[in-house]
């Protein structure tokens, strides 16, 4: 086994021990890489990856775009909140959420109680280049999609910043971003566990 493989195994063991089965939830804008990074992260940690948008489409029997057209955004968001709440009860998963899911205050509170959240943060140029490759983004079907995207970022980024961990999604391989997520998780979970270890030591003494 190479030194890098040993380090990965040690990181995985650390993360899984400290999470004790809690979900890892990826939040961020459309195009941030939640699905591609999430799949690589899950593979690396030996977890199952779930995409909340795919679960919504499966339950509804139609695409996100068609759901928006048929029912409007408010009803879609209510259904999204119910699906995310259900998926948070799945043990040992990496959950990729839609861009608007974390904007729901009840969903944020539930994620905070039951999971560890990671914001994949990307700048406007990176996001717009990625989302421009696909035409199935209902929120961007406007006269000026770049300006619409910027407006969404201005609204959502202060809320995304409430996530437990922030990792920069940039134009590198998604494996590298997944590795950055692992390193950030190890640091965050270790820092959260340190006070508990100190209390146990003090109690034992």
Describe the model:
There is one protein chain. By secondary structure, the protein is an alpha/beta fold. The chain has one domain (3-204): Rossmann fold (3-Layer(aba) Sandwich), CATH 3.40.50.300. 62% of the residues lie in helices and 11% in strands. It has helices spanning 3-19, 34-45, 52-60, 64-87, 105-114, 124-131, 145-160, 174-204, and strands at residues 24-27, 48-51, 93-96, 116-121, 165-168. Strands 2-3-1-4-5 form a five-stranded parallel β-sheet, with helices on both faces. The longest helix is centred in the C-terminal third of the chain and has 31 residues, at 174-204. It is globular and about 50 Å long. The model has no long low-confidence stretch (mean pLDDT 87). Catalyzes the specific phosphorylation of the 3-hydroxyl group of shikimic acid using ATP as a cosubstrate. Its cofactor is Mg(2+).
Quote the beta fraction. 5-15%
Shape: globular
Second-tier CATH architecture: 3-Layer(aba) Sandwich
CATH superfamily: P-loop containing nucleotide triphosphate hydrolases
Structural domain count = 1
What is the fold-level CATH name, i.e. the topology?
Rossmann fold
Integer-rounded radius of gyration? 18 Å
Overall mean pLDDT score?
87
Please provide the count of β strands.
5
Number of contiguous helices: 8
Helix content: 55-70%
Q: Low-confidence segments, ≥5 residues, pLDDT <50?
A: none
Strand order of the biggest β-sheet: 2-3-1-4-5
The SSE order reads HEHEHHEHEHHEH
The CATH top-level class label: Alpha Beta
First and last CA, distance: 40 Å
- Going by helix content, strand content and strand pairing, the class is alpha/beta
Largest sheet descriptor: 5 strands, parallel
């Amino acid at each position: 086994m190479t030194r890098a493989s040993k380090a990965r195994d040690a990181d995985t063991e650390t993360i899984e021990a400290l999470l004790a089965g809690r979900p890892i939830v990826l939040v961020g804008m459309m195009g941030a890489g939640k699905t591609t990074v999430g799949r690589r992260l899950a593979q690396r940690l030996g977890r199952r990856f779930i995409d909340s948008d795919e679960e919504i489409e499966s339950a509804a029997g139609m695409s996100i775009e068609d759901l928006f057209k048929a029912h409007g955004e408010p009803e879609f968001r209510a259904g999204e909140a119910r699906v995310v709440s259900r998926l948070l009860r799945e043990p040992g998963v990496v959950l990729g959420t839609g861009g608007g899911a974390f904007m729901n205050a009840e969903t944020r509170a539930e994620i905070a109680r039951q999971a560890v959240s990671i914001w994949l943060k990307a700048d406007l140029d990176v996001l717009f280049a990625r989302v421009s490759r696909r035409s199935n983004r209902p929120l961007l079907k406007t006269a000026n999609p770049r300006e619409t995207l910027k407006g969404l970022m201005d609204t959502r980024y202060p809320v995304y910043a409430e996530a437990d961990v922030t990792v920069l999604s940039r134009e590198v391989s998604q494996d590298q971003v997944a590795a950055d997520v692992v390193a950030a998780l190890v640091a965050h979970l270790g820092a959260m566990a340190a006070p508990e270890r100190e209390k146990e030591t003090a109690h034992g003494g």
